[in-house]
Amino acid sequence: MGAANPEIIKRRVKIDFESAQTNPWSARGAAFENKLNVLSFLFPAGERFFINSVRNYLPRVTDPVLREQAEQFIYQEAMHTKEHTRSNLVLAADLPYGPAMDRLAKTMLAFHTRTSFKASQLAVTCAMEHFTAILADDLLRRQDEFRAAADPAFATLWLWHAVEETEHKAVCFDVYEHVFGKGFFSYLHRVVMMAMTTLVVALTMGIGFRIVARGERKKDGASSTPAPARPTLSSLMRSISGRLYFDYYRRSFHPWDHDNSDLVAQWKRNYADLGVQPTKVKQLAS
Asked: Is the overall model pTM greater than 0.85, yes or no?
């Protein structure tokens, strides 16, 4: 386990989405907002998959510290599932593509669960946690800018989620190495599953963004989706550091080789009290 791990905190969170401004909730534009909304609709099914993949191996985790971290990981992911489900219920009133995203995630993950070994499910979760950690790092590096441009409820949701993804970013990886070791075949399995996961993520997001584009065309009655409202894979890729992504393929890689715990500390100083109690909503500038 990495020495830089920050504390993984169990937070009880209930955000006031009912009072939030949802359309738009970000002043950064429809494409940026739709990109995060697509992720939000995919998250609940994904996080349930992550929880189950770790829970499958809890009986084999003999290190008491790692076992506690795994249980804290499960708690945090369950809380993310709950809050994104609540936010999605509010967003769905304006975003008819939401249920299609949820079905897409459930279908793909159910197929993977039925057709793969539990070891591969854990390796996929390690890969996905690496992706979410990179995206979280990108968001937390501009957390003040993000909060200033967003409805408080959705700013709280995304920054809190990013912090907890950072806090527990090594847990699945540590469970994997604890159970399967650090030998060549364990490493090979890990990186092969990352390569396969990368292709599936690109496919899933590409399908998701096409669903958004189709919905925008129907809503506007236009023959093509207005570019400002259309999220793209290239815009998502710009949020994923190539250096951090390819670092995963090193034999000696560990998630805390990239120590960004200062970003968690910054959030704790400035925003940790937000979201525990409902926040007062401000109207976005037009």
From this structure: yes
